[in-house]
């Protein structure tokens, strides 16, 4: 879907994974981008994860306790958010 403000969203309603805009969407996963941010439920390293970012805010969730997932930009979570690197570095 596309909106007048430039926002775009892809939703996978199929049974298999779907590759779109450099993201792998599992069944019922989605990827959206809009002016100033992005949001997704996607597959990374075989795990279904969720994340969103907008401005200086970043949310990530690996959805699997004890499994460490490295998100793009060097952010790592194992069901609790952990940021790597210098805290003065802008969010990815």
Layout of helices and strands:
Elements: E1 8-11, E2 18-20, E3 23-25, E4 30-34, E5 37-44, E6 47-54, E7 57-61, E8 69-71, E9 75-77, E10 81-82
Antiparallel strand pairs: 1-4, 2-3, 4-5, 5-6, 6-7, 8-9, 9-10
Q: What's a concise summary of this model?
A:
With 92 residues, the protein is mainly beta. Helices cover 0% and strands 48% of the residues.
Strand percent estimate: over 45%
Strand order of the largest sheet: 1-4-5-6-7
Distance between the termini: 25 Å
> Could you tell me the radius of gyration in angstroms?
14 Å
State the helical fraction: under 10%
Any idea what the shape is? flat
Question: What is the domain tally?
Answer: 1
Q: Please state the structural category.
A: mainly beta
Sheet with most strands: 5 strands, antiparallel
Q: Count the helices. How many?
A: 0
Question: How many beta-strand segments?
Answer: 10
SSE order: EEEEEEEEEE
Query: Spans of 5+ residues with little confidence (pLDDT < 50)?
Result: 82-87
């Amino acid at each position: 879907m596309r909106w007048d403000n430039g926002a775009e969203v892809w939703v996978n309603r199929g049974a298999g994974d779907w590759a779109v805009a450099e993201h792998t969407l599992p069944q019922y996963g989605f990827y959206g981008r809009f002016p100033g941010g992005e949001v997704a439920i996607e597959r990374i390293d075989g795990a279904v994860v969720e994340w969103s970012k907008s401005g200086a805010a970043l949310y990530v969730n690996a959805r699997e306790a004890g499994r460490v997932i490295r998100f793009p930009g060097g952010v790592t979570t194992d069901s609790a958010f952990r940021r790597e690197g210098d805290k003065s570095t802008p969010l990815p």
